[in-house]
Amino acid sequence: MPLQNAIFTSITAQLQAILSVVTEIKRVYPYPVDNPDKNPYAIFFPSGFENSFETTQENMRICRYKLFIGAKVTQTTLANVFATTLPNAVDAAMEALNTGWSMTAIDGHRAWLKTDSCDWMVSQDKDGLNAVAEFNLDIKLLTNNS
Questions:
Q1: pTM attached to this predicted model
Q2: In angstroms, rounded to a whole number, what is the distance separating the alpha carbons of residues 53 and 98?
Q3: How far apart are CA 31 and CA 46, in angstroms?
Q4: Predicted confidence (pLDDT) at residue 113 exceeds the cutoff of 70
């Protein structure tokens, strides 16, 4: 298996394991979905990578993921989702990533996790409104060229 595939597979498995135990999130999807069936939910997937050739001995590789934590506005109000449901799910997910990130090495490469919050927004699908918090996850790896 090529190194990049092994890295994305390892990262996806780790993120799935971490987010799946967050009780404030009822369903985790490691791929894009149109209509999540549980509430609140987390959707994450790879969004690209960057490779920086630092020296002749090592590279800095950054694997990027998108993470969306959302809640449908079906049995409550939009105000309640933004005041309680979404913040609780986001706080719990960030805490889980903080305490659960155990991939100090991926395939023998040193790794770091960085999370950046993007927009919190409202979207609409055929079932109604969704409140969504978007995040960028950067996993930085120091790779050996030899």
A1: 0.87
A2: 28
A3: 8
A4: yes
